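Methods — Computational structure assignment.
A single polypeptide chain was analysed. Its primary sequence is given first, followed by the predicted tertiary structure written as structure tokens.
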Amino acid sequence: MNANDHRFPGTPRAERKGRAAALAQGRRVAADNVTALLEAVVECGDRVCVEGNNQKQADFLARTLAGVDPQRVHDLHLVQSVVALPEHVALFERGIASQLDFSFSGPQATRLASLVEEGRIRVNAIHTYLELFARYFVDLTPNVALIAAEAADAQGNLYTGPNTEDTPAIVEATAFRGGIVIAQVNEIRDTLPRVDIPADWVDYVVEAPTPYYIEPLFTRDPALISEIQVLMAMMVIRGIYARYGVTTLNHGIGFDTAAIELLLPTYAAQLGLKGRICTHWALNPHPALIPAIEAGFVHSVHSFGSELGMEAYIASRPDVFFTGADGSMRSNRAFCQAAGHYACDLFIGSTLQIDLAGNSSTATRGRIAGFGGAPNMGADARGRRHESAAWIKAGEEARQGRDEMPRGRKLVVQMVETFREHMEPAFVERLDAWDLARDMGLSNPPVMIFGDDVTHIVTEEGIANLLLCRDAGEREQAIRGVAGYTAVGLARDRDRVAELESRGVILRPAALGISRRQASRDLLAARSVKDLVRISGGLYEPPSRFRNW
């Protein structure tokens, strides 16, 4: 037995692999043998990581794990980025798993909330991605990791293609701590374009019956962008990006930020901002960014993962994207999260609820969506030391002349319409997270971004610059001042809000020189997916669900 085979609780790796010896030929395992393989190497109570993130999913292995005999394998502790597939939830419904540490749930948010209410799952924590990766190397190292790759060669080396994503972090933690790594691949090739994971970090390789599932999560059809979103995007460009000279940034997912991306070659260019804002990005390859890239706005994009249909376009722009010799992108979620936290001056994203202190959360009653990367992107990086114009200006506004040690400040922007789907108000007196904390047995509410990290809130009513608020009372009135006709907004102190407007703490569109009549969809550089295809020179190949021609 290798001395490294048994370094955390559970049966040593060599003994587990011995039980599965008859099921494999070298590292190769036939798809029909994977259920038996999992029942041989996975033990009750193991920490198991089923790779799944915003995009690619180890779906065949997840489906197979959900089909093992729960009398033989049960009470697993899942430690994984995303609970996105029905099979992930089925693991809890069948009693195969009982504990969860995760980051994001997306389409399973409602089912996950139901399981919590029924007491059928113990959620230990909702992490940010980077936080969960870090814990893989401290106290949440997987006993078994089930991962996905594009291809393997005969030796078991893996090629992850443009969707490397979480794979290196998961495999390195598992393989070097005595755990077992099982990879599903789309195909076995004689030679690989590059080796992303070396064979001796992988225990088993299975050629899955179908290619791994991948979700085009970051594709937004410009046809669905509203004129309210155009208005908010104009305010952001003029009132924040131009004001601070933001060149390094990250955008969250959504139509709000897609509208900003599509206004760069038009509205921002008209303001003379080309080369002065939005040049360097930590961002997935959003199709909505194609017009800005082609207009010369964008100098570089480093990505967490890829986006379905963008492969040929990315290969044609190695001057912008990080690509290998084969032309495919090399993404890496851990590195891009670190870039978003430390190397970017601004994060802008959306949320489901904001309270009077600016705390926000996407974990609401009946829906536990998780946080993904937002808490890292949306937090002031207090370990940062390099300077930039935007970072310095935001720090100066935060100090407001006080005799304190000078330090910069990251811009963290929450961009929401005052009412979201089904006329649910985005602004609330008290976050649902307080009730969820009780239901989940947590000591602290699951807050996505804490209010003291938020610098600006943007709604269709205007921009609240929280950096300029002198105390908690002003901060509350600034938030109420942009909360529109929600109950929070209607309860504002009109005199105090007027005073905040006079000081520039609250900026209305008119104060930014923006007429609401200007906010037309005609400003969008692309008004349909077909436009994006045309602007890409036909290289962007959108998934069929986005094609209507």
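Note: Confidence is low (pLDDT under 50) at residues 1-6.
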